Amino acid sequence: MQFLCWFALLTAAIVAIGVGADVTYDGRSLIINGKRQILFSGEDLFMWPSLISKAKEGGIDVIQTYVFWNLHEPQPGQYDFSGRRDIVSFMKEIHAQGLYACLRIGPYIESEWTYGGLPYWLHDVPGVVFRSDNEPFKIHMQNFTTQIVNLMKSERLYASQGGPIILSQIENEYKNVEAAFHEKGPPYVLWAAQMAVGLQTGVPWVMCKQDDAPDPVINACNGMRCGETFAGPNSPNKPSIWTENWTSQYQVFGEDTYMRSAEDIAFHVALFIAAKNGSYVNYYMYHGGTNFDRTASEYVLTAYYDQAPLDEYGLIRQPKWGHLKELHAAIKLGSDPLLSGEFNTFSLGQLQQAYVFKGKSEKCAAFLVNNDSRKDVVVLFQNVSYELPPKSISILPDCKIVAFNTAKVSTQISTRSMEPSQKFNSPQKWEEFKEVIADFDETPLKANTLLDQMSTTKDASDYLWYAFRFQQDSSNAQSVLNVNSIGHVLHAFVNGVFVGSAHGSHESKNFALQNAVSLNKGMNNVSLLSVMVGLPDSGAYLERKVSGLRRVTIQSGGEVKDFTKYSWGYQVGLLGEKLQIYTDSGSSKLKWSTFGSSGHQPLKWYKTMFDAPPGSDPLALNLGSMGKGEAWVNGQSIGRYWVSFHTSKGSPSQTWYNVPRSFLKPTGNLLVLIEEEENGNPLGISIDTISITKVCGHVSNSHLPPVLSWVGQNYQSDKESKQHHGRRPKVQLRCPLQKNISKILFSSFGTPFGDCESYAVGSCHSSNSRAIVEKACLGKKTCTIPLSNQNFGGDPCPGIRKALLVDAQCT
Ligand SMILES: *[C@@H]1O[C@H](CO)[C@@H](O)[C@H](O)[C@H]1NC(C)=O
Ligand SMILES: *[C@@H]1O[C@H](CO)[C@@H](O)[C@H](O)[C@H]1NC(C)=O
Ligand SMILES: *[C@@H]1O[C@H](CO)[C@@H](O)[C@H](O)[C@H]1NC(C)=O
Ligand SMILES: *[C@@H]1O[C@H](CO)[C@@H](O)[C@H](O)[C@H]1NC(C)=O
Ligand SMILES: *[C@@H]1O[C@H](CO)[C@@H](O)[C@H](O)[C@H]1NC(C)=O
Ligand SMILES: *[C@@H]1O[C@H](CO)[C@@H](O)[C@H](O)[C@H]1NC(C)=O
Ligand SMILES: CC(=O)N[C@H]1CO[C@H](CO)[C@@H](O)[C@@H]1O
């Protein structure tokens, strides 16, 4: 019933707008309006109202977000807070839904965002050294931070003014690089803290991973296992805050998805609360979304944390979302003793530990931890036996009844499907435009050396042409072109003919291209297109990082000609980019050809029109037939795609690319792609709808609170156990919005084999299983089926622990 208190508190805060909430902290937690708080926070990059409400329903109290300097100040002194950049409206939406906000200003943010959020123009400020005790950097950092804080203040968005913002962050994981800055590091930390505090927001500041954060800035933990790794606040007066609990991991092209289970996340969150006095946990990410445009950093995928509790498309990912929701509720049931009780810990066995919080008036909450990753154990706690599955924590909000165990997932598992809605398989629908291969003579910029790609393009494009020409005395078919590059992809052309491509990876950025080429007698033109897949986002001295070609040689017969120091011509970007041919107006500036008229060759633009698929399901382009490039819908970039870079398992890291419905008109939408590779085939593209099509629940008798199933003298009747939070095991199914359960694919009460991915009837199976479940669920949006003999018309196998597995289709 903490939830009621919680909402009451917020209502009070909203009514009290103008008066302002007082946000302070002590060694236990943040204190808002004099009240201690345990807070669960969800990180997200630009969530829409429905996402905020799904987060709230999942037991999230705080929305934490970064501020992206390079989005908001694209040119020095020119600020942009329009459209997706409207951070004020975002804060107001959070407030309107009764949640708090944590604003991570940075302004260095890393976050797999291009250049770590710093605008590229900062690189060209004379004498600048990023993130150190360096005047030019500090001036710009202070200006931007002040700009954001003043904007928030002018809209009265700090909790101290009655707004939602209860915390702000300055810098980001600086400890990782501090040593590299030698004597310029520590004074910068001190300066950043004082500068931030001096802005007088009326709410606390945090520095994450900065164990020496200067007072009164709170040092916070980032990581996957803060319950084990966090050394704790650096002062007894500061609370234990976890700003980034990675719900999975960001993904790069060429790598497989990292799956972090709901059980593992729940274990570490419960441990942080129990063992580290944790009072604030933020999920990184709760919703990641999409790196539209060219905003992802080096090699980082366009989809960002699709494995988060709310997936890339904003759909609820189960069981992660539901399991964490139950965890939040269980922890909050014990808020009183947790926040004001006395703490004790004692051993329950070799690898088992109890963490007990005893409050006034005998209120008590306990966490029973089994750190044995293989064995199920039974422990005795206050004379009662509890069964603890391997690597799990049971939460007893009253020190008696288990409200939650981190390893027992009773939430349904949902399956997401992509269904083609429109195919683009007709050649008549497409037009194409062959990108012009840059030629030395035509290049606008010349230099007698290989230039760094970043300082040449200034991030205006991923593409930089490096061109040269040379005289060859004889024609020689045996020549070999050798290029060494550090960023990130290379396509090579000799005399206008494609000769080969090569690329590096997130792990190894150096790569070489080595291709046989045939040279003409006389003049030869070599054009090398170097392509970056995002700027770097981390490391010390980011401003010194360079990219692009490092060495170029041609071997002919026995002779090696080195062109590294030679007369080079440069062109930033492609012609199609310059003309913005992906926009309505730009696409009419040139003559498109019929599809297929220019044969197979890399570097082609493709264009088609399409109508928005009916309905409201999220949409994505299936680009599985393409190679590498970027795609635009009505002039808006939906990001880079790269499906030809396969993972070790032989599949693309990302096949589907999010197309928000807000980018679309009902009819006549313009789709344009630049395809860099020869084999990309737009005829295989489709626009797909994305939805949850299947839900499955699997619970067994072991989901009963252990006091019921294990200790004879403590056995309680069904009637009694119902009073204990209604926690009788049951399968609960829920189809997403606008969908009902249309078919029961499998149902077995007994001892079914397997799990929700593959299953079969076991030796014990109630013959009523299907009929009972169909009756309860068919045609409904949600249904609940209790796991009880009574419900299934009798016990199919007395004396045996039973389970119920139901798999259902949603349409
Ligand atoms: C910083 O902000 C101040 C006040 O807005 C302005 O006068 C100054 O030009 C800015 N400095 C830089 C380097 O942008
Ligand atoms: C948690 O708080 C208790 C009581 O304030 C203290 O004894 C204990 O050391 C703290 N634990 C950590 C990990 O900070
Ligand atoms: C659990 O065991 C692992 C590995 O043995 C150890 O690293 C970790 O610190 C332990 N955690 C707890 C909470 O005891
Ligand atoms: C546990 O049992 C012992 C012996 O029966 C008894 O003395 C003690 O009071 C009991 N403790 C609790 C917490 O019930
Ligand atoms: C090389 O480029 C020059 C200048 O555009 C052109 O005149 C010449 O024909 C090209 N040579 C070859 C072999 O393509
Ligand atoms: C789902 O069921 C409800 C009530 O049973 C019904 O009103 C609704 O039309 C159904 N929706 C679909 C999409 O079948
Ligand atoms: C992104 C990142 O730094 N992930 C780290 C998260 O924590 C795990 C385990 O502690 C590390 O292995 C990852 O590198």
UniProtKB/TrEMBL annotation:
Q: Where are the transmembrane segments?
A: none
Give any Gene Ontology cellular component: apoplast
Q: What is this protein called?
A: Beta-galactosidase
- Organism, scientific name: Liquidambar formosana
Its primary localisation, in coarse terms, equals secreted
Task: Tell me which SUPFAM superfamilies the record gives.
Answer: (Trans)glycosidases, Galactose-binding domain-like
This protein's record includes keyword Manganese = no
Catalytic activity, EC: 3.2.1.23
Signal peptide as annotated in the record: 1-21
Write down the Pfam families for this protein, in alphabetical order.
Answer: BetaGal_gal-bd, GHD, Glyco_hydro_35, SUEL_Lectin
